[in-house]
Amino acid sequence: MSKSPVPTPHNNAVVGDIAETILLPGDPLRAKFIAETFLEDAVQYNTVRGMYGYTGYYKGKKISVQGSGMGMPSIGIYSYELINFYGVKNLIRIGSAGAISDKLKLHDVVIGMGTCTDSNYAYQYNLPGSFAPIANFNLLQRAVNIAASQGTEVTVGNILSSDIFYSDAGLDNLASWKKMGVLCAEMEAAALYMNAARAGVNALCILTISDCPFTGEECSSHDRQIAFTKMMKIALELA
């Protein structure tokens, strides 16, 4: 008999510890904040590499939250294991993003209907062309409706998942994406959407604008950890 793949090198959890719906903030301290602030009977199931994971209940529904780290390689590992080893069916990234569109300002909420990328993540699938990573429509539609019911204005559209935080091209890189109507830049959603598509499960990315590179405005690291509650409340209702 083959050895069980869990616990994994990246996750202390055993099968059953993690709910079918999980929130994935990049920052593990944001996961801790959500568990302590919003979940009842929260139990910590992961501490490996400081990437905290918790399972609890929100309005009577079982839900998990776990840090996913920075960049597509990191969320690629965590989401793959959650889907294929732990049976997670709905993965909702809740992260920060830099505004590309001039219409966005600090603390605005964006939902990624699709994501462009400069990553080579799709290379592994040996596709005979380009793959367009998109959100699950049911989760997307529900999130938009939930936001409206909560009085939160959201912008839905195309985002950028980039491998590069400090680009040698500077703002010229983002300016090129702006011409194509891309709303904002982050670093994880494309890998999440591709992993979900390959496994036939559901994924969605909800973002809060944490900085505006073209104006120089930015939120503090403390705000990024605990102040982005509007997107958290939208995501929690998706359980």
Automatic annotation (TrEMBL):
One of its GO terms (molecular function) is purine-nucleoside phosphorylase activity. CDD domains: PNP_EcPNPI-like. The keyword DNA-binding does not apply. The active site is at residue 211. The record marks 224 as: Important for catalytic activity. GO terms for cellular component: cytosol. Its EC number is 2.4.2.1. InterPro entries: DeoD-type (IPR004402), Nucleoside_phosphorylase_CS (IPR018016), Nucleoside_phosphorylase_d (IPR000845), Nucleoside_phosphorylase_sf (IPR035994). GO terms for biological process: purine nucleoside metabolic process; uridine catabolic process. A purine D-ribonucleoside binds at residues 10, 186-188, 210-211. Keywords: Glycosyltransferase, Transferase. Homohexamer; trimer of homodimers. This is Purine nucleoside phosphorylase DeoD-type. It comes from Romboutsia maritimum. The gene is deoD.
